[in-house]
Design goal:
279 residues, alpha/beta, Rossmann fold, 2 domains, seven-stranded mixed β-sheet, six-stranded antiparallel β-barrel, 8 helices, 13 strands, 29% strand, elongated, nucleotide-binding, FMN adenylyltransferase activity, EC 2.7.7.2, ATP binding, FAD synthase
């Protein structure tokens, strides 16, 4: 039975497998799991690098081995970004959802709406929500995981609530981090960033003038090095762009039958003077 009370639910079908997507305020998600128990992982999962994929794969396999429901909980914004009133995520929400659906067989993807109420939720109340409304009995998390108001909840709190044997801890892979990916992008090393990302780094753009080839970058807000890039327009059509001051010029767009560009996958940085080799 599809639960439709007070939550927005989307069913995604792939080869006979359904993943339920729930995007709503935490307090509107009540008694979501009707029967059985669940294995949960919680995180922002920005970019789906190797460390993220290990956590997600373990969550899926543990749930399947115990015949439980697998649940991934993420957030509409990072808490720090919400407080700064900006969004510095590497990938868009829709891309995150599509990646999970394509690469895993998970039962639920919950994207909690970040608001003042969520930020002020105590670790005790968050754990209560996990147990009562999601029927959580096991979790898979990174070693630096924290939760609740001001991030005071820790792995030790999870172990006290669920028992240490039901809390699987993954050690952080220092060579893979969202911060390192952002650093690569800022330095123009998008080829290295893309090798680490589960989803190719893309810009979401909007045309600034119907008469020219200029676009403004709507997302992400991450620093992108100015210069020329080989790209795929709308992730399909090969092209070349020039970025300067958060503005994108699509070269030879008039030869592409006025392609309606909305998304640009950055493949390779060519340099500020359109060099063809990248160090």
């Amino acid at each position: 039975m599809i639960y439709l009370l007070a939550v927005v639910v989307v069913w995604i079908f792939r080869k006979g497998f359904f993943m339920i997507v729930v995007k709503k305020n935490m307090n509107q998600i009540k008694n979501l799991i009707k029967s059985g128990d669940s294995v949960v992982t919680i995180g922002f999962f920005d970019g789906f690098h190797k460390y993220h994929n290990d956590i997600l794969q373990t969550t899926q396999e543990l749930a399947q081995s115990k015949n439980m429901t697998s649940i991934v909980i993420s957030f509409s914004h990072k808490i720090s970004s919400f407080l700064k009133k900006q969004n510095d995520a590497l990938i868009a929400s829709e891309a995150k959802q599509n990646y999970l659906e394509t690469n895993f067989k998970l039962d639920y993807y919950i994207e909690l709406e970040v608001d003042e109420q969520l930020i002020e939720t105590s670790p005790k109340d968050f754990l209560k929500w996990l147990k009562e409304d999601l029927k959580t009995i096991a979790l898979v998390e990174g070693e630096d995981f924290c939760f609740g108001a001001q991030g005071v909840g820790t792995i030790k709190d999870l172990e006290l609530e669920f028992d240490p044997q039901n809390v699987i801890i993954k050690k952080r892979v220092k060579s893979h981090s969202s911060s390192k990916i952002r650093s690569y992008i800022a330095k123009g090393k998008v080829h290295k960033a893309n090798k680490m990302l589960g989803i190719p780094f893309s810009l979401y753009v909007k045309k600034t003038n119907s008469q020219d080839q200029q676009f403004a970058i709507n997302f992400p807000n991450s620093k992108v090095k100015d210069g020329y890039y080989n790209v795929f327009l709308n992730n399909e059509v090969p092209g070349k762009i020039f970025i300067a001051n958060n503005q994108v010029s699509v070269l030879d767009l008039n030869k592409m039958n006025d392609l309606a560009v909305e998304k640009i996958f950055l493949k390779k940085y060519l340099g500020i003077k359109n060099k063809t080799k990248q160090k």
